[in-house]
Design goal:
Helix content: over 70%
Radius of gyration: 22 Å
Number of helices: 3
Number of strands: 0
Largest sheet: none
Mean pLDDT: 84
Oligomer: single chain
Structural class: mainly alpha
Low-confidence stretches: none
Strand content: under 5%
Order of helices and strands: HHH
Distance between the termini: 22 Å
Length: 100
């Protein structure tokens, strides 16, 4: 079992998580704004083919991966904490078996 977090550690972790989420929200807003401009250029400006789908897909993949790293795998997420706990238990069992 892990030691309980101190109030300072809780504050630091909360600020880190909030900063990561705020970073993703900013990334998402920029994605929407820039892709509206790119779509407009594609549709009404440069050429008559919808080329704007390519940057949208590439950046969209990056945004999705950023979201996974923040909301699913980020520091303190449930999935990450469970994986760390399982790995910790496995290493402790391995150490105990080697000491016997």
């Amino acid at each position: 079992m892990t030691a309980p977090l101190t109030p300072e550690a809780i504050e630091q972790l909360a600020r880190k998580r909030a900063g990561a989420k705020l970073g993703w929200y900013l990334h998402a807003v920029l994605f929407v704004v820039v892709n509206i401009v790119v779509f407009s250029m594609s549709r009404y400006g440069f050429g008559n083919r919808p080329w704007s789908v390519y940057p949208l897909l590439g950046w969209g993949l990056g945004l999705a991966l950023h979201g996974v790293s923040v909301f699913v795998l980020g520091t303190g997420s449930g999935l990450r904490e469970r994986m760390v706990q399982k790995e910790r238990e496995r290493l402790l069992r391995q150490r105990d078996n080697e000491q016997r």
